[in-house]
Design a protein that fits this description.
10-stranded mixed beta sheet; 7-stranded parallel beta sheet; disordered C terminus; 259 residues; mainly beta; 24% strand
Length: 259
């Protein structure tokens, strides 16, 4: 257990920053064996690989955790708690992280560009927080991302073209923000995409005709934006499409009358 000394210290220091009720919920967090801690799973060598405290009811911040000690962690999940404050840039130190789930909390501030340093990241879930600022262009470096969900926040600015470099993306969910500008033409490079949620933003411009390149797309939501122009006939070529939502936009010449 001596190899776990730094990990234990990091977790216990983090626990001490939570409110009293939260600390009582983590009553198993004591001693020198983190593999017995609630929400912690270890590998064969006793190193922490999973930290899952979702739906526990914790109230505190992410600042009190020394992420540089979590060198073997592949999943960090805190869904549906009362975690507030910002996402620290040091979270980019969890170099082996495969899944980061911070949905349904009270996080604020900007998404730190350091998340783009997580080259092993496949799943990034930041839905339903109070995050603001722009979507960092550095996310385009997380080339292994399969699912990117950052809906129901206060993000503004345009959809960065760099996200269109994430060729492994199957789900891109950006709905319920304050994003503006047009849908980038480069988004049609995401040929693995099967779900695209862009509803309830301030997007303008038109739906790109090249959308037919998204041959695996099965769910497309663009409703409640300031999109205008004509609905492109090319949508008819999306043979895998099962759900299409375009209500609340100002497009003309519905393609359905010609299909």
């Amino acid at each position: 257990m001596t190899e776990n000394k730094d990990e234990v210290e990091a977790l216990l220091n983090w626990k001490s920053t939570f409110d009293n009720h939260s600390q009582s919920l983590l009553s198993s967090w004591h001693g020198d064996n983190p593999c017995r801690f609630t929400g912690v799973a270890c590998n064969y060598y006793g190193a922490i690989i999973h930290l899952n405290l979702s739906y526990v009811g914790l109230r505190g911040t992410l600042d009190g955790l020394d992420y540089s000690c979590l060198t073997s962690v592949v999943s960090f999940e805190l869904t549906n708690n009362s975690i507030y404050g910002s996402i620290p840039s040091s979270i980019g130190n969890i170099s082996k992280l495969n899944s980061l789930d911070l949905c349904f909390n009270e996080l604020s501030g900007e998404i730190p560009p350091s998340i783009g340093m997580l080259e092993s990241l496949h799943y990034l879930y930041l839905d339903a927080n109070n995050l603001s600022g722009h979507i960092p262009t550095s996310l385009g470096k997380s080339s292994n991302l399969v699912e990117l969900r950052i809906s129901q926040n206060n993000l503004s600015g345009s959809i960065p073209q760099q996200i269109c470099n994430l060729r492994s993306l199957t789900i891109l969910s950006l709905w319920g923000n304050r994003l503006s500008g047009s849908i980038p033409l480069e988004i049609t490079r995401l040929t693995s995409l099967h779900t695209l949620y862009l509803s309830s933003n301030n997007l303008t411009g038109s739906i790109p005709h090249s959308i037919e390149s998204l041959s695996n797309l099965s769910i497309l939501y663009i409703s409640q934006n300031a999109i205008s122009g004509s609905i492109p006939q090319e949508i008819c070529n999306l043979r895998s499409l099962t759900v299409l939502s375009l209500w609340g936009i100002n497009c003309l010449d519905p393609f359905l009358q010609k299909s």
